Amino acid sequence: MRMRTLLILGTLALLGFGLAACGEPDATSQATPDTAPATSPPTTTIPTEPVYRYSQLLPRDAILPVYVPEFVTADAAPLDDSELVLAIEIDGQAKAYPIIVLNSREMVNDELAGVPILATW
After folding, report:
1. pLDDT tens-digit readout, 67-89
2. Could you state, in order of their start, the residue ranges of all structural domains in the chain?
3. Which residues contact 119 (CB under 8 A, 6 or more apart)?
4. Which of 33, 71, 83, 86 has its CA 20 to 30 A from that of 112?
């Protein structure tokens, strides 16, 4: 019985502390623009060093996309059967972009079946 009483009192105390922390501020702490206190605003410390560091090897936009890709038929493509391609099919028309090319150029601006596409790796 004593343990239950302590548990209830502890819960009520925590509830009281929580309500006191979330309650209405007193009238002296509420300042309006007309009655603003004559104290200076608090200062905020802004870190001068970035929190996360990374090593950027190339400047932004250093790798240009392919704007006018050239295609050959699948039989004429100089690829092995095991080489990966990024493929797309729209309305029965299909294109494949070899990953070996996308590794160095990363993006291809193209159009397929009248739809503008961006192939990226």
Report:
1. 999 999 988 999 998 999 999 99
2. 64-121
3. 86, 88, 97, 102, 107, 108, 110
4. 83
- pTM of full prediction above 0.70: no
Greater confidence, 74 or 20? 74
The answer to whether 39 touches 80, Cβ cutoff 8 Å, is no
Residue with tokens 């608090």: 42
Count of helix runs (H) and strand runs (E) in the chain:
2, 4
Between CA 106 and CA 63, with CA 83 as vertex, the angle to 5 degrees is 10
* Total residues belonging to the chain: 121
